[in-house]
């Protein structure tokens, strides 16, 4: 059966025309009917540039109403939004544009200069403002959404080092939004603060919830501890999505104060949180709900529910209602309390990677996604995530795959071998550090870092470089990353 | 894509094992894990009787935990529940059993005697208690639900007089539950009172919501004004589904009292309500949300939302988020404020009637269901229902099709012609009354009523019979029902 619905933004504008859709500090708010009008107008202007259904259009922007408008406008055309991480290097962006066959990059004004460097790779770049100056083409826009149609593509790094385009259908986003509502409940008073970048699925998913629930979003350009604090204390925000480092800073800012009762949920994702951080939050009365999810699951797929939040500290909860979860060890489902690989299943899970059969084959088994993450279920079915994907480094909520950094290091003249691991860091959770065997005496740390800065997003660049004689390798000569830690100089 | 989920009751029992699933006055409550255990046990006992996936099993019962257990147990087997209206005559029930190819009728204890009369039609009847005494068969039960699979069948009378089996897939029930949550919101404190019979979709849909939301149901065997009042005032019920006559009686009972703030929604369905009733409710501070729906839409498809309830008295609101609605006149979409036939579309709408291509062809047009009901949309998209399906009589929330009653009347010896309409009634909304042209002098009202009582549910039996000389007919000799009213004796 083809599952269709009225276009979500049209529908919400019909249901709640005058309700606030987006509120921002120091900018005028936008209602659902205004957002619909903006998005449709933008769509007709894009159409005048030849943008058509099925086209892949990249968005390269910091959080703003214009970015949200652009994302929704593409759905009116039936074009697919490829959301680019603005922290990536030009080389990384160029790879994604080519891999996703992007025909146009839409950029926010403040990034246009940076974006124009992308243009050298051959893809046309236009700012939101440039599009807005165009005349509208009188063209038929989509009135209905088909749930199985492709909506967005977001790249995620793989263990092999080459990023993979995660495809989200409208249905994936729909089921993600509904799953979250079934867990957190849904109130007319809800206002969800977005400080996560909208190019990550954690941020994007809140936009989808906004138009599906009819819920105002309190939008920040980026995480700013004072603005988030203000939103919670003064602007009646009820839900905030954060990663660990944001929570750390909010607690610092909070001091001996407590948040008002209006804050009902601080949704904590983007990697494991330390027990001490969770306990600190608890002692401050912050309603932290730990979550587990990834780009492939269109945001959270397991979350600690309100009723269990206080008694199950450290758990990411149970799989959301429409989702399933199992722990697998040697192709067998693991017994209770035994660590194994986390497998997930559900209608919010991507149906596959863009043009990447190999990655699909590795990831999917009988409708289940093998996440590569390690964890266990306790005797009541609560999930405890032990380690994110093998060797994955999570720094301030961003994923870093050692293999990707190593392959850049390997390409530096003078580097014979390179190994990268994460090192604990109070501020960022983890930071990447590198171990290098060099074959050119003069090579120094600065040279290495400079080269990396040209080819990698800044957050992926090793924060410390150690020159060593040899890397630990196993019998088949494979790098044994977990032994790298032993090479650290003892001080 | 095949859309599967973990079995809903298993899932909710995993998520909220100790939460109350069903509460009843003067009976012990049942938690979700207990309900799951009961339903699985009952399923294994049914399996011992040869009940298999795909079988059509009728339920003939008054509201009870046993009835709920039986309904859920069938989903563990993959059998389809045919929900019988216990108010129907044996002839009517026999038709449905045959039409739906029912292999077994499950009856509540209190109806077993009545049900055993059904057995004469050749279908085996067992009470819940009889099944409960059996040993369990060790058989594999369903772990997953496939949304496109058939879940329930509920008969609805058609304009032609012959009832049609409305097929509800799991997906229909799912989308109905989600649609309602998106409109009414979802709170951890919710407790939904069920006084409607569970064999109607309005009652059944609350069971589905219960296991999908993890929400306790406050179950009454039948509508009892004192018990409903008690539930609202003493037992923290937050939502109640009612039909007009129930609301009338609740307001009488309420007197000068008001309900506690815990009652957040009185969902009013089952036919149009008079403006004076709605105003009375408003003056008592009762949060009435008028709805529009039918068996084919798996309960409400349009509902006045909380934010519009007070300003749009008399409207049934807007189509729920995943639903669409249009008004059609002469095959054209009607302009604003113009009355036409109501068409609906959405994933909660049945995909068709059981083995009834003719009815399907009449009802469905390009994915839209032609409801036969008349109404209009105002300039802001609010639906006003003017008349339910052509000539439909709604009495105490039960549908009565004149054609069905007329065809029984026509079969009485001595009746030459018969016409049936609804007459306004303070208590029931409407009651059926009959106009008869007789060709046997001795025929009297008692004879007619007695005959009807044998062949029709009591609520369908004409409450008054008028003997007339001729019925109003049009040029093609078709009965013109709306002119029957002119034949009423003037007093």
Structural write-up:
The structure is a homodimer of 491-residue chains. With 491 residues, chain A is α/β, with parallel strands linked by helices. Chain A has two domains: 4-384, ANL, N-terminal domain (Rossmann fold, 3-Layer(aba) Sandwich), CATH 3.40.50.12780; 393-487, ANL, C-terminal domain (GMP Synthetase, Chain A, domain 3, 2-Layer Sandwich). Chain A is built from 14 helices and 28 strands. The first copy, chain A, has a nine-stranded mixed beta sheet with strand order 3-2-12-11-13-14-15-16-17, with helices on both faces. In chain A, strands 7-6-4-5-9-10 form a six-stranded mixed beta sheet, with helices on both faces. In chain A, a hairpin with a 2-residue loop joins strand 21 (364-365) and strand 22. The longest helix of chain A has 17 residues, at 32-48. The termini of chain A are far apart. The model of chain A has no long low-confidence stretch (mean pLDDT 92). The A-B interface holds A 1, 3-6, 11-12, 14-17, 148, 171, 178, 181-182, 185-188, 212-214, 305-307, 318, 321-322, 324, 346-347, 351, 367, 380-381 and B 1, 3-6, 11-12, 14-17, 148, 171, 178, 181-182, 185-188, 212-214, 305-307, 318, 321-322, 324, 346-347, 351, 367, 380-381.
